[in-house]
Amino acid sequence: MVLERFRLDGRVAVVTGAGRGIGAASAVALAEAGADVVLSARTEEQLKEVAAQVEAHGRQAHIVPADLSDLDQAAGLGQAAVDAFGRLDVVVNNVGGWMPKEFVRTNVASMEDAFHFNVSTAHALTRAALPHLLAGDGGSVVNISSVMGRVTGRGYLAYGTAKAALAQWTRLAARDLAPRVRVNAVAVGSVATSALDIVTGDEGLTAAMEANTPLRRIGDPDDIAAAVLYLASPAGSYVTGKVIEVDGGIDAPNLDMGLPDLEEPQ
């Protein structure tokens, strides 16, 4: 009976950044649990490939190619779900990320852009989706945050600050939207997505990262998708305002970015 609580039969989900990696794995996991899925990302061909995987599980997929840094396009995904499937139950705010850069090369615009891409997009979509989530049995919002939102590491100033803000946004939104809508997040560690290609393509870097991870491996997108499914489904119905850490047990960055030291003033 417990396994039945992970089912999402008859439910509809929106997943951003769904063309590959964590977003794609989460969309397929939700479909495997019975949900129809709206998939959005920049690249239409990638979305078509993920849609085929969704349909292979007997569910429907609706693709929306979009630049989700445009808040109007992000906000429109809730209505797109209702137009395609008649309802909306789950929002997965996965789109995000930012390139590492040392402090002296992180200007104000970069800080603001990182916040926009990782936090404002989630807020825009969730706020626009709220009436649709409330129209059903309530809903679930799952945000993809990062271990860098709670640990320190050189080069992650903009990204880590944005992900920490997303984690706190999760807690605050959960209080505002309870009890009808649950809001949670997954703080991910090092996961084998395209963003980590520079590591996974180098045996030495891979070995170093694995050695510095308590569970001695790099994460798989399905590790994150499993947590997303738990939070999105009735299995997580007594969980809100929480940030679940799925990071292999790390308490510090598990790879030296090799950024130069700050030079002493002359």
UniProtKB/TrEMBL annotation:
What's one Pfam family the UniProt record gives for this protein?
Answer: adh_short_C2
Write down the InterPro entries for this protein, in alphabetical order. NAD(P)-bd_dom_sf, Sc_DH/Rdtase_CS, SDR_fam
Q: Which domain of life is it from?
A: Bacteria
Which terms in the Gene Ontology molecular function aspect does this entry carry? oxidoreductase activity
The alphabetized UniProt keywords are: Oxidoreductase
Tell me the protein family, please.
Belongs to the short-chain dehydrogenases/reductases (SDR) family.
* Name of the protein: SDR family oxidoreductase
Record organism:
Aeromicrobium terrae
